[in-house]
Amino acid sequence: MLSASSVNRPLKYNSELEVRGLESESEWEEMIHAQFASSHDNLPPSEWERFYRTQALRYQAMERAGFGQWYGGFLNGQLAGGLGLFHHQRVGRFQSVSTAPDFQRRGVCQTLVYEASRRLLDSGAVDHLVMCAAPDYHAIKIYEAVGFKRQLTEHGVYWWDKSHHS
Q: CB–CB of 68/87 below 8 Å?
């Protein structure tokens, strides 16, 4: 787990990226497609699509209830990536950070993480933010680039039964 109570602008900040909340059903649809395009191959495509659509409905309900926001990063009006940042009891946690395949390696995720973090911390709604991932997960570098520090290592076990998903 990584944690931060303040953030720093990353070196790979993309000043052309417009960071804002998703504003329409078509933007949510773009987000679902971006997540789907970067999903893993441990589930069939139809299951990933169903998963992302179900999650989008949950995140929209959480947003309406005041528990956070889903941010999109737009380059020239096109969705380049997105993330959810939701909070409870003064702690914010990231959800499903992703970059559309055509926009990778342009600082999209670092800029999104920084901007969403800064905005939520500045709002006074949280005292700190957390990000949970495996210790060797590539995204940890994104969070460390904006000032997150490793705090705790948790271990878990999961099983993907590929015989049911062939």
A: yes
Which residue type is seen at 134?
A: A
As given in the structure block, the two tokens for residue 121 are 């911390």
Higher pLDDT, residue 166 or 26: 26
pTM over 0.85: yes
| For helices 25-37 and 45-64, angle between their N-to-C axes, nearest 10 degrees | 140
Q: How many Å separate Cα 152 from the centre of its chain?
A: 20
Please state which of the four CATH numbers 3.40.1170.60, 3.40.50.2300, 3.40.50.40, 3.40.630.30 is assigned to the domain occupying 2-164.
Answer: 3.40.630.30
The full set of domain ranges for the chain reads 2-164
Return phi, psi of residue 163, to 5°.
-65, -25
**Does pLDDT of 156 surpass 80?**
no
Q: Tell me the two tokens of residue 74.
A: 């737009």
Contact 119, 6 (CB under 8 A): no
Determine how many CB atoms are found less than 10 A away from the CB of residue 8: 14
Q: CA–CA separation, 104 vs 98, rounded Å?
A: 9
